[in-house]
Every structure is written in structure tokens, then in C-alpha cells.
Design brief:
The protein is an alpha+beta fold. It has helices at about 10-15, 40-55, 120-130, 175-180; strands at about 25-30, 30-35, 60-65, 70, 75, 80-85, 105-110, 135-140, 145-150, 155. It has a 6-stranded mixed beta sheet, sandwiched between helices. Strand 8 and strand 9 (about 145-150) form a beta hairpin. It is globular. Residues about 1-5 have low confidence and may be disordered.
């Protein structure tokens, strides 16, 4: 039986490919292009509600869905990337740039979809933490669990009634129980 071996791509080679922004988007992991899993209703509801919640808060941050973030040797498309308003790339005319982000966002949120690899998603969050991400959440709707990753400690399963951590300067009053309650 013949096995096809695909050549590894550099980040620049990957970013130059026209198909990477097809739906679902493609990511670059260890030199290999991989297409994201298509989300379902639970994923979409949580993503939409979190975006509205975070963008409705007072503060100098903005939450973006499916924003390409390329840093280190990888290009990822997190479910939600939260970045400071002053870090949003602008064109020479002051408009928001059409490209993705060329650095790790301070806050990443991933929502596990059925059939999606927990290991691959965890590796994506750890890559962010190694390159400047301060906070990451991994939400598993099937297990009704929120794992919190912070750069200075081990990942934790967040207690259902405790307020979830947010970036400094954001007053997010949301618990895992409240967040997962959006699925009802």
C-alpha cells in the first residue's frame, strides 16, 4: 500500500495559498495544513453569545470570531480571539486591515465541536501561551466543562459557580454554569 507524504510548508508558503480561508478555514500545524472541523449548533450558539457578551463589556478590547492569527511557525484560526483595540491592524488610511493578526492574541477561546481533537485544540492554546497569550478558555459543551489556561500555572477545570477569569481591565461576570446554561 502506498502512503502519500505531503511536503511540510513554511508559514509564508501556507499564508500564500488561496484556499486557506475557505470554510471551514485551514490552519498550519507543524508544517502541515489542516482544515478546521465544521461547527454545530451548540458551538455556534456559544460563540455568538460569547462574542456579544465580551464586545458588550466596557473596556479596550474587542472579540473577533474565526480571526486568522499567525505567529511562531503556525497559523491558527481560534473560535474567538480577544485583542486590545489599539492592536487591531490598520491600513495607511486608518481602516481596519483585511489581513489577520500576525501575533498571538492576549486571550483565546476555543469551543470543542463533536469529532474535534481535544489534543489538537489544547496544542493550539499551548502554542498561544508560549507566544504571548495570557489567557485561554477551552469549552467542552458535551462534558459541560470549561478548562482555563493561564501562562503562569497549570490548566484548571473551572468550578461551575466561580466567575471565569478575564483579561485585566475587563469586568466579565460569567460562570461556567451561566455560560453553559446558554445551551438550554
Amino acid at each position: 500500500m502506498a502512503v502519500e507524504v505531503q511536503d511540510r510548508l513554511t508559514l509564508d508558503e501556507f499564508l500564500g495559498r488561496p484556499e486557506i480561508d475557505e470554510s471551514p478555514a485551514w490552519e498550519l500545524f507543524d508544517g502541515m495544513p489542516l482544515q478546521k472541523t465544521m461547527p454545530g449548533l451548540q458551538h455556534s450558539r456559544l460563540q455568538g453569545r460569547l462574542l456579544s457578551w465580551i464586545n458588550g463589556l466596557e473596556g479596550e478590547f474587542e472579540a473577533f470570531p474565526e480571526l486568522r492569527c499567525s505567529f511562531g511557525d503556525r497559523s491558527i484560526v481560534p473560535d474567538i480571539a480577544i485583542i486590545p483595540s489599539e492592536a487591531i491592524p490598520l491600513t495607511e488610511t486608518g481602516e481596519i486591515a483585511s489581513m489577520g493578526l500576525m501575533q498571538a492574541p492576549p486571550w483565546l477561546i476555543e469551543i470543542l465541536s463533536p469529532g474535534q481533537s481535544m489534543t489538537r485544540v489544547t496544542r493550539k492554546l499551548l502554542h498561544g501561551l508560549r507566544h504571548g497569550t495570557e489567557l485561554a478558555w477551552l469549552i467542552d459543551p458535551a462534558e459541560r466543562v470549561v478548562l482555563v489556561f493561564q501562562c503562569d500555572r497549570l490548566p484548571e477545570e473551572w468550578p461551575p459557580q466561580d466567575l471565569l477569569p478575564a483579561l485585566s481591565g475587563l469586568s466579565l461576570e460569567l460562570t461556567p454554569e451561566g455560560l453553559l446554561g446558554w445551551l438550554c
